[in-house]
Structure formats: C-alpha cells, structure tokens
Amino acid sequence: MLKAVIFDLNGVIINDEAIHQQLINDILLGENIRTDPSEYQELCLGRSDRACLLDILHRRGRVASDDYLDKLIEAKTLAYRQRIDSLKEIPIYPELKDFLSYLQQHNLRIGLVTGALSSEAKFILDKAGILNYFEVTVGADEVVRSKPQPDGYLLAVERFNQLDNTLQLTPENCLVIEDSPVGIEAAKRAKMQVVGIANTYPYHFMQRLSNWAIDYFSELDLTRVDEVLTS
After folding, report:
1. Distance separating alpha carbons of residues 187 and 171, to the nearest angstrom
2. How far apart are CA 60 and CA 91, in angstroms?
3. Which CATH number does the domain 17-85 belong to among 1.10.150, 3.40.1340, 3.30.30, 3.30.70?
4. Is the pTM of this model over 0.85?
5. pLDDT tens, position by position, 56-87
6. Is residue 129 classed exposed, middle or buried when 0-12, 13-18 and 19+ CB atoms within 10 A define those classes?
7. Pick from 225, 199, 231, 202: which is nearest to 212 by CA?
8. What CATH number has the domain spanning 4-15+90-230?
9. Distance of alpha carbon 185 from its chain centroid, rounded?
10. If DSSP codes are grouped into helix, strand and coil, which group holds residue 189?
C-alpha cells in the first residue's frame, strides 16, 4: 500500500530552473567556458551542482579539485539565496500547498530528495512556508552519488523508518514526483513508482518515462496509485 510520497525540489516544488541555469552560466563564464543550453539540460537538470560542474569541466579537459568545486558551489549557493531573497514571491508551483495538505489529511508521509544542498532545500521550504509538511529531507551533500543513482531515495526510506520503527516502509510503498529523466531513473532504480509532472519536459515525454504523468497535482489519482501498489 502507499505510505509515503517523496518530492523532488527544483522543477516540482519551485519553478527556479531558469535561476539555476543562469547561475551555472555565470560560473562557467568566470572559468572562461562557453555556455551551452543543451549541455545544461543534459548534464545539470535534476542533478547536483557538483555532478553538473564536474562533468562540464571534464568535457572541457579541466581537472577541478574537491576544494575548488566546494568554492564554486559555495559561491553559487550564496548567489541563489540572494536571488530568492530579492523576489517578491517564491515561485512555488500551483496547487502544491493544497496537495501537501491533502497528503497530510490522508496520513501519508511526505519527504524530499533533491539535487540541491540540504541547507538550500530547507531554506526554500521554510521560505515558502511548507517546511513543516516534510518529515524527511535528503540533499545532494548527504549522499555520495547524485541522481540518476538511487542513493537519495533509499536514504529517505531509511530516515522514515528511523523516525518511526512501526512504519516498516519499503521502496515499494513510496510514490515519487519528479520532473526530469535523471530523477525518474533514480526513483525507478530505487524500485519506486514515479509520477512525471510536466513542468520541465512535455507531458508526452513524461508519459513515456514514468508510471504516471500529470500536468498538475490535482490530476494525480492516489486511489489508483494505491490500487496498483496493492495489486
């Protein structure tokens, strides 16, 4: 049966991919590297900043130490916070708060697994006034391998069970909401059912990759999901 719903952050909860792309571009230009929108889509969407920058630098024949990458990521994190703080309103996707309330009313556990740093994720959730809905959060700095590896989702299951040892949560009891191919692949590798929300890629593309596809949270039939998981 369905026990937990786990969200991605960027592109699912907050519409901020354009901000992230601009900030990555700023870093690359500072490194005298030409930016390429298709490369960003291929190497960065759904993945951690570390994985994104490491792969782009590698393509350019650059070798970056962990310390150097830490400095680049730290600068981007600071710039991101400043950009978000300058906004009049956090660009949270429509229907999100109602959907979170719906999940809570139906006693479903709510978690987050993101390619963003844990501190950055909590900053966004708090800024949007929804942090209290999330029992478990897993950031990119808390796992060794970024999406499309399943590590973050498997760690979320562990953390749910640590919070409540009567829950006996397994990956098969979880539903993931993702917006990118690497995120969907990560959830499937973790043996979880996946909803692809068409915020970043077209609906038909999400439909091909995920178990369910939606344009809006209100379209998700959790009763049907539970039937599939129980069958």
Report:
1. 9
2. 34
3. 1.10.150
4. yes
5. 999 999 988 999 999 999 999 999 999 999 99
6. exposed
7. 225
8. 3.40.50.1000
9. 12
10. helix
